[in-house]
Amino acid sequence: MSSQTVPFPAPIARAIALVGAARDRLLAVRPLYVLLTLVALQWAATAALALTVRHNGWIFYMGGDQLWHYTGAYLIVHGKLAPTYVGIGWSTILAPIAAIAGPNLVSALPTIILFDTLVLAPLGLVCMFGIGERIGGRIFGYWTALLWIVIPFVGIPYALHGYHQKWTELTMPQLLGLGAMSDYPSTIVLVVGAYLCLRSLDERHWGWAAGAGFAVGYALAIKPSASVFLVAPALLYAAFRPKALLAFGVGLVPCLATLAFWKVRGQGNLPWRTTEPAEHVALGGRVFHRYLGGNSWTQLHNNLLQLREHLWSDRLLEFLVIAGIVALLVRSRRAGLFVGAWFTVFLLLKGTYVNARVEDSSFWRLMMPAFPAFVLLVAAIPLLVPGVRLRPGRPKRLPVGKRAVIATAAVFVAALSLFPIALVAATKPIKGPQPEAFDLNATLVAATSSFHLRAQTLGNAVRLTWQPQRSSFGATFYSVYRAHGDDDAPCGPVKNAPSFCTLQSKQIGTTRTTTFVDHPPAGQWTYRVGVTANWLDNTSYGDVYVFSRPLVLRIG
What we know:
Blueprint: H1 10-28, H2 31-52, H3 66-77, E1 80-81, H4 89-101, H5 105-136, H6 138-158, H7 164-175, H8 183-202, H9 206-222, H10 231-240, H11 244-267, H12 285-292, H13 297-310, H14 314-331, H15 333-350, H16 362-366, H17 371-379, H18 402-425, E2 428-429, E3 437-440, E4 443-448, E5 454-458, E6 461-465, E7 477-484, E8 491-492, E9 500-501, E10 506-511, E11 515-518, E12 523-533, E13 543-548, E14 551-555
Parallel strand pairs: 1-2, 4-13
Antiparallel strand pairs: 3-4, 5-6, 6-11, 7-10, 7-12, 8-9, 12-13, 12-14
Helix pairs in contact: 2-5, 2-6, 3-4, 4-5, 5-6, 5-8, 6-7, 6-17, 8-9, 9-11, 10-15, 11-18, 14-15, 14-17, 15-17
């Protein structure tokens, strides 16, 4: 018994034929040409945003740890080591830039942003294509790469009017690498690691799994909080290739060892052991509370409510995630397990974090490592249409020789593991009094003698003057700080580690000139002047990028 195929209506049949013809033509084009076109599109889109969104020269909004990384890099190249509360990877990449640009981050921003957009951005796009190609073939790879470019811009009309500025000015520059924070490079390196994880399943050579481990390890060296990503490759290998777990673990070792050395040198101990003496042996509940004490289901619920308040639809976002996971699980179990776990673990860790809030856009920055997984889930939505199938079509395997693997591994281990260890080992911990850098509002700020701060007193009036510290890459102004006494940055000694020094001065004014007049009460006072900047060039906001040396005066 047989049945006849039901014909489609003529318009639908023509559309299907056109889609098929377009697919065949696209497959006939060399992938290199398509990827070059997509990279050009990505650069054009990034340039369009950079030129239209509010900014101050090369200064775009940055709301993270950029100063701690850059100041740490500047200190390292000058033989000093500050407390290491951030990862080592980004600081050692910035070290050569800081050696040339100096302590002022504004002077280094063009080089950093160009590195992000011209090197890391194409690398991320090519690896997103590679992930999509491994999951569903070349067309699915192109589709994934295109969404990688488009989705941040779709958020512009998707955000409601009151949230438009927070998406375009506070979130998109960070998603596109227009800044000096560590979130963007860490995310790109995670994408590289994810691509190598999938490739290691297709090509059974142990080198791919070890390379995946090294890439993921370096992403963790840049941003240690991304370690939750390890759940995804662990599940993938355990389910589909358990033998690769060993090679993946070996690949993790160099970068994690570098990170451990960095933490011990900068904190005197490993982070989970840097606690009060009574807690040194606590490896259970107290350590759990140390890292997850700020997480709660209530915060995740609040973020979901804020999505509903500030975006066009929270339900659509929820549908895209759930439907994408279902589509991948139905069409490709390994992709569904890997990508689904990737997104879920970050949502559970970052979405429940008390300082991750949709309202002030911090949620999007903290969730950035999960953005590639979200793109893959959205790309998978068409797979829910009946009859649509993945066509993986194994990509051409690369011959991997033993010598090539050893040489490549040696280069990467030397450049990204041994070199940072040697660089840090040659430093001396900063100590008080008058430390080379100190904490101010959870940022690390260096002090330099280039200001040549001077003062003239007449009665109770103090006239401060200093040398200009301007940069041609963004408008800056000066913040003047004053503290009572002769020590404005007291240091708390840490055993076998740099002292933790905190600036306890109060800001008494700002100026765009190189003079400032103050009228302090009688007594001994310590003055500092700092270069301050922000993306709005507004003297009411901004972080201090570099400080002068202290100037102590006695009045009356």
